[in-house]
Design brief:
alpha/beta, two-stranded parallel sheet, 2-enoyl-CoA Hydratase, Chain A, domain 1, 9 helices, eight-stranded mixed sheet, single chain
Length: about 270
């Protein structure tokens, strides 16, 4: 199954939060798997499935997480990691609402976890989970891809447009519609202001330059997702990354086929 680029757009996820709605389900159901070399047969291993195609599985000192980043998913991680101590998070995720993504990232930092990416770590997963890992491994054929953050230009305007379109679709009387639009705009400003403040604190904590999340869109004109070589990631403070030697030379069509849509490699000038 494939990720859907339309449903994992950062602005849509932010808008869902700001309006109190539910972000669309984005990650296909996965049966999960144990890390290489681990059969998952030990008595300490356990697995549980949470709502909306989120799967959390423990295998020894590794937690495997597959699905969107949600509050329910984070609760499942916390419960699964209680005892004994885990050292590694293996993740496959299309991202999620940005504040929840930061909560995931802060949890990774607090537990000093290594992060392994299987297949894809996109959007908020790339922004906040991957960057939070002590050591970071991108498995063969997998990709870490960005497409913006709480600071992306025009985000507030896009939020307001989305909210206003949603309100217009409800068929409210004109005065009530105007009140709802004003209320939603205030909520968007409050939400985004808080998200930016929290994001600044997060990136300061992990020692990463936030611009990594949007340089492909801002400077190189990429309209969708982009990824960086291991060497270029280091320019933004993303250290301790291992990947295949040909990570920056993956065949574009094959990569798009694996995850369901194009991802553009950018090389820093």
């Amino acid at each position: 199954m494939r990720f859907s680029p339309a449903s994992i757009t950062l602005t849509l996820l932010v808008a869902a939060c700001a309006t109190g709605g539910n972000a669309p389900s984005t990650t296909p159901t996965s049966t999960g798997e144990s890390p290489a070399g681990d059969t998952g047969s030990r008595k300490s291993d356990m697995a549980l499935t949470t709502h909306q195609d989120i799967r959390v599985q423990r295998s020894g000192d590794t937690i495997i997480y597959r699905g969107r980043l949600t509050e329910q998913g984070l609760d499942a991680l916390r419960n699964t990691a209680d005892s004994p101590r885990v050292t590694t998070l293996l993740i496959e995720s299309s991202g999620g609402e940005i504040v929840v993504g930061m909560d995931f990232g802060n949890w990774v930092v607090e537990h000093e976890l290594n992060v392994i990416v299987d297949r894809a770590c996109l959007s908020s997963c790339a922004n906040y989970v991957f960057t939070a890992g002590r050591r970071k491994e991108i498995r063969s054929g997998a990709v870490v891809a960005w497409h913006g953050s709480a600071k992306q230009p025009g985000l507030l305007e896009q939020l307001n447009e989305l909210v206003e379109a949603d309100i217009a679709s409800r068929g409210l009387p004109p005065q009530e519609r105007q009140r709802e639009v004003r209320r939603a705009r205030r909520a968007n400003v409050k939400y985004l202001t808080g998200a930016i403040r929290k994001q600044d604190q997060f990136f300061y904590r992990v020692g990463v330059d936030e611009y990594v999340t949007r340089i492909g869109n801002d400077r190189y004109g990429v309209r969708g997702f982009f990824y960086l070589s291991v060497e270029d990631m280091a320019e933004f403070g993303i250290q301790e990354v291992t990947a295949d030697k040909d990570y920056a030379d993956m065949e574009p069509k094959a990569l798009a086929q694996r995850i369901g849509f194009p991802v553009t490699l950018i090389r820093l000038e």
